[in-house]
Amino acid sequence: MTPSGKSCFFKDLQACIAFITILPAGKKPVYSPLGMIRFFPLVGLIIGALLVVTDFLASKAWAPPVAALADLMFLVAVTGAFHLDGLGDTADGIFSHRGRERALEIMKDSRIGMMGLVTVVLGLAAKFAGIWSVKISCSPVQTMAIFFLVPSFSRASMIFGIKYLDYGRKDKGTGKDLFTRPLNAKDFYLCLIPLGFSLFLGYRGLILISGFALGCFTILKFYKRKMNCITGDMLGAMTEVMEAGLFMAAGMNIIF
Question: Are 137 and 252 in contact (CB under 8 A)?
Fold first, then answer.
């Protein structure tokens, strides 16, 4: 990698950290919407590593239910509830039973409706249950690996959303800049990191991989049928649903 290539690499990484987390990303990171897309899985790994530390410290002080709640609070805080906001807005729009354009207008409303509130509460409950299940069903090493990988897989799903669905808004929205060019293989190569680590997790790793593939397919198929497009809010919702679903899948009691 050339010096300029290294500089671009780290600038794009800083931009991604600043965009989807509240973590420090250096002085005045440059907004780089197209450059930062490939780093979604890598920033997910950073979040996952911090989640492992959070869980380790919380587990020293509290029983699994309280530690699981601390883990959940960390995941909400580290993103500034950015993806949760998208989940609530998406639920309000998609489940409004209105046409596409009206649903998109509803998503832009900063006020949360009943469907959004219910969906956020259920999403947080599912994630809490999944985290708790992982803690009591898996070995300590498996738990650390799952906590490390799930945030990466869930954020990698956004790349597939950008790749396979068109942006839905005519005017400028939060995610519009991510859709200004078609994605290529270079935008996906960092997805190989969580995939590779999962291969060392045995059958729970296979659950993560298959859950990721099935989750991406199902959510994008649902978006295609309901809206025939995607937005920044819907990308955030996809991340939240994938994260909760993967924790629940990884925590299943399966006996071979």
Answer: yes
pLDDT tens figures, 27-41? 878 888 899 999 999
Is position 196 within any domain?
Answer: yes
Q: What is the pLDDT of residue 164?
A: 95
Q: How many structural domains comprise the chain? A: 1
Cβ contact 159:192 at 8 Å: no
| C-alpha torsion angle, residues 196, 187, 164, 153 (rounded to 10) | 30
Domain region containing 126: 48-250
The answer to whether residue 40 is domain-embedded is: no
Residue 20 lies in a domain: no
d(CA 225, CA 15): 32
What's the pLDDT score for residue 29?
82
Examine residue 19 and state whether it is found in any structural domain, yes or no.
no
pLDDT digits (tens, 9 = 90+) for 119-132: 999 999 999 999 99
Among 133, 142, 252, 159, smallest CA distance to 198 is for 142
